[in-house]
Amino acid sequence: MITRPIKTRVFEEGEDLFAFVTWYLKKVPERLVLVVTSKIVALAEERTAVAADEHAKEKLIREESEFALKTKYVWLTIKDGAVMASAGIDESNANGKLILLPKDSFKIARILRKKLRQHYKVKELGVLITDSRTIPLRAGVGGVALGYAGFRGIRDYRGTPDIFGRILTFSRTDVADSLATAAVLVMGEGNEQRPLALITKAPVEFRDTISRTELRIDIKDDMYRPLFSKLRQSQNKQRTRLSRPK
After folding, report:
1. Which residue, 66, 96, 106, is CA-closest to 214?
2. Burial per residue of 140-158, b for 16 or more beta-carbon CB atoms within 10 angstroms, e otherwise
């Protein structure tokens, strides 16, 4: 698999995303995955805001979230079925504004893919909209897929044998987020000006229709929920012991 970032000029708010992409992509081969950072998708949609103070910013975060909890460093939120910091609202490379997440990254990926397939006359093409996220108990950020089109986002090994014939009951590969991580690594997080990337020779299943919920897990079924529930209970007990008079 080869992942190549594309350096561009600064994308301006309100610009046409399709025109921007086709300016930098003169040719598109079959079986390509085009990666687009969510920031320029949001700028194309003019999904920006100005917060006069922290109270206004907090109000915006709550409006953009399905769940919001204030933590030591950021607001821990749930949006579009995923955990993220501050509802994905970003201040970096925003020229004094706040950049929100796109309205519907899956819809944008689908529309952009359709236009690009017609423009370049290709059949097998993937479009991936990415963002950056932290991972619990790990420093730094990695890539995550906000939306995608043209390829299956998960590879399911359940019911198949491993190399010793043992039937797998749990194993699945998160294809979409794996591609996003590879792309974000070369696109960068600072002033690189690489909002686009091309992935070729990717081991993915190209297809015209996908399920936008195939990567989601209900919070009741999340394997990490018991760990953090017990951690919170332990912390509460410790605070109670420390607050008792001696």
Report:
1. 106
2. eebbbbbbbbbbbbbeeee
